[in-house]
Specification:
Layout: H1 12-27, E1 40-45, H2 51-62, E2 66-70, H3 84-91, E3 97-102, H4 107-114, E4 119-124, H5 130-144, E5 150-155, H6 162-171, E6 177-182, H7 191-199, E7 205-208, H8 211-214, E8 220-223, H9 234-240, E9 259-261, H10 282-300
Helix pairs in contact: 1-10, 2-10, 3-4, 5-6, 5-10
Length: 304
């Protein structure tokens, strides 16, 4: 039985296979319409979510399966003091696979130790978000044709951005990748990612506070929001929340084939005027997430 807790749980060959399956789903959705008939997905979201939860639900329904679960911890027995372990033991009696989001880092790992069915980490605190990374990878693949020889700009909240940490882990395994890390000093990439991933694997990177200066060299610009829910101090959030706002004029020196990405939700870090730019790919990411989650569910349930 396989779980997906971290993007590194999947080899590059497995990621390529998931992308191949996702592309086949895109080209021939009817072939997959009953692949998960009589299978049940439980969505246990102890933290608010729109895209990820609905994406998992849409993925399972389009595979012919069904969905059960909750979208708020206040509507579950955890509000009565039930442990995560006990919740998982109970739900694994009802479902064939579980997608779980939790505000505490490591909670999906705890769940995997007691579950009788596959666990998918749908985001744990500021740690990991592997299925968002799968959506990101399919987007990059469809826009760029592959993952080699790319300069990737990551902008905004790199300290708490779990999507950023997962994407760096994933892309660092490909050839000729370079990262440009754009953030205020207070929201720089954590040392454990810099040291254990970038420096350890000799991945070229630079750190800067200057988005405009970095723009001309980027193949991909991955914007992130400053996450209010990760801050202990409201004043720090207010001071940093508008550090970077992408507007059409800031894209004047960008490459014609720049791929602009964002894991969403956005607040105001990308102007709605950018939505009309053909280089804006963040809503494509949303759709790609559904296809990759369909491919992942099939893989973890060992459906041919």
């Amino acid at each position: 039985m396989r779980h997906l807790l971290d993007i590194l749980d999947l080899s590059t060959d497995e990621i390529n296979s998931l992308i191949e399956t996702a592309c086949d789903i895109i080209n021939d959705p009817d072939k997959y319409a009953e692949k998960c008939k009589r299978k049940k997905l439980a969505t246990l979201f102890f933290e608010p979510s729109t895209r990820t939860r609905l994406s998992f639900e849409a993925a399972m329904y389009e595979l012919g399966g069904s969905v059960l679960g909750f979208s708020s911890s206040s509507s579950s027995s955890t509000s009565k003091g039930e442990s995560v372990s006990d919740t998982i033991k109970v739900v694994s009696c009802y479902a064939d696979i579980i997608a779980m989001r939790h505000p505490k880092e490591g909670a999906p790992m705890v769940a995997s130790m007691v579950s009788d069915v596959p666990i998918i980490n749908a985001g744990d605190g500021g740690h990991n978000h592997p299925t968002q990374t799968l959506a990101d990878l399919l987007t990059i693949y469809r826009e760029k044709g592959g993952f080699n020889d790319l300069t990737v700009g990551l902008c905004g909240d790199l300290k708490f951005g779990r999507t950023v940490h997962s994407l760096i882990n994933a892309l660092s395994r490909y050839s000729d990748i370079k990262f440009v890390l754009i953030s205020p000093d207070e929201l720089k990439l954590p040392d454990y990612v810099t040291n254990n991933v970038l420096l350890k694997n000799n991945i070229p990177f630079e750190e800067t506070t200057d988005l405009l200066g970095a723009m001309p060299k980027l193949d991909i610009l991955y914007m992130t929001r400053v996450q209010r829910e990760r801050f202990f101090n409201e004043q720090d959030y207010i001071r940093l929340k508008d550090s970077y706002i992408l507007t059409p004029d800031k894209l004047e020196d960008a490459k014609d084939d720049l791929c602009i990405m964002h894991p969403l939700p956005r607040v105001n870090e990308i102007s709605v005027a950018v939505d009309k730019d053909p280089r804006a790919c963040y809503f494509k990411q949303v759709l790609n997430g559904k296809y990759m989650r369909m491919a992942l569910i099939l893989k973890l349930l060992e459906v041919e």
